[in-house]
Amino acid sequence: MKISLGSKAIAVPSPVWVIGSYGSSAQPNIMVASWASICCTTPACVAVSLRASRATYANIVEHQAFTIGIPSRDFLIETDFIGSVSGVLVNKFFATGLTPVRSSVVDAPYVEEFPLIMECSLLHMLEIGSHTQFIGQVMDVKADEEALGENGLPSVEKIKPLIGSAGDRSYYSIGKWLGETPLANNWLADKLFVDEKLVDAPIDEVGSLSQDNPDCLKVRKS
Ligand SMILES: Cc1cc2nc3c(=O)[nH]c(=O)nc-3n(C[C@H](O)[C@H](O)[C@H](O)COP(=O)(O)O)c2cc1C
């Protein structure tokens, strides 16, 4: 039986991203955001939700740009500090010893020490309630060579990103590699009683095939 926890924005896990922006005197600032995700493939976009009280909020509005840095777990303490103190009070680059680098494509700084960076131009702002969602178009992604896998793409195991738990406000590191998507073709073949046509179909056709033939997905073997 499920226990109701009420109307709360709790989903696990959440990302731990560091948002880079410039203040009005061009001072580089960073904050942490977990209310964040990829939100569009074309154009490539990400969304971060910020309270209006964050110095970063005004910075992004003024400069129409921000960066996202994905810290590795080696920077747990620095990251927590960046998410605990406002740039209005403290120069967080100076305090942590992290290195600000001016983006070559947008008017925002990023953290040199973090293995993966997205440089974003502000595309939309959506006022929701306590938070405003900033949608940024990703103008470039920069990665340390050591953060890339053999396929030339960012490797979760090499980056070792922090992940967050919204409910208990905790940090975790990643678990083990489980497999490459799509895994469900094998699961369908193994677990379901299906006709030959469906077993041979790529996973993105299964939905339409099963609608055409509602009988083909109805019996589970186990
Ligand atoms: C793990 C973590 C996640 C956070 N996520 C968000 C978030 O998604 N949105 C937000 O407005 N503040 C978030 N914060 C709080 C800001 O990072 C914090 O208030 C920061 O000091 C704001 O810095 P600024 O005033 O220099 O912009 C988070 C803090 C932590 C530690």
From TrEMBL:
<dbReference type="GO" id="GO:0016646">
    <property type="term" value="F:oxidoreductase activity, acting on the CH-NH group of donors, NAD or NADP as acceptor"/>
</dbReference>
<comment type="similarity">
    <text>Belongs to the flavoredoxin family.</text>
</comment>
<dbReference type="InterPro" id="IPR002563">
    <property type="entry name" value="Flavin_Rdtase-like_dom"/>
</dbReference>
<dbReference type="GO" id="GO:0010181">
    <property type="term" value="F:FMN binding"/>
</dbReference>
<protein>
    <submittedName>
        <fullName>Flavoredoxin</fullName>
    </submittedName>
</protein>
<dbReference type="InterPro" id="IPR052174">
    <property type="entry name" value="Flavoredoxin"/>
</dbReference>
<dbReference type="Pfam" id="PF01613">
    <property type="entry name" value="Flavin_Reduct"/>
</dbReference>
<feature type="domain" description="Flavin reductase like">
    <location>
        <begin position="9"/>
        <end position="153"/>
    </location>
</feature>
<dbReference type="InterPro" id="IPR012349">
    <property type="entry name" value="Split_barrel_FMN-bd"/>
</dbReference>
<keyword id="KW-0285">Flavoprotein</keyword>
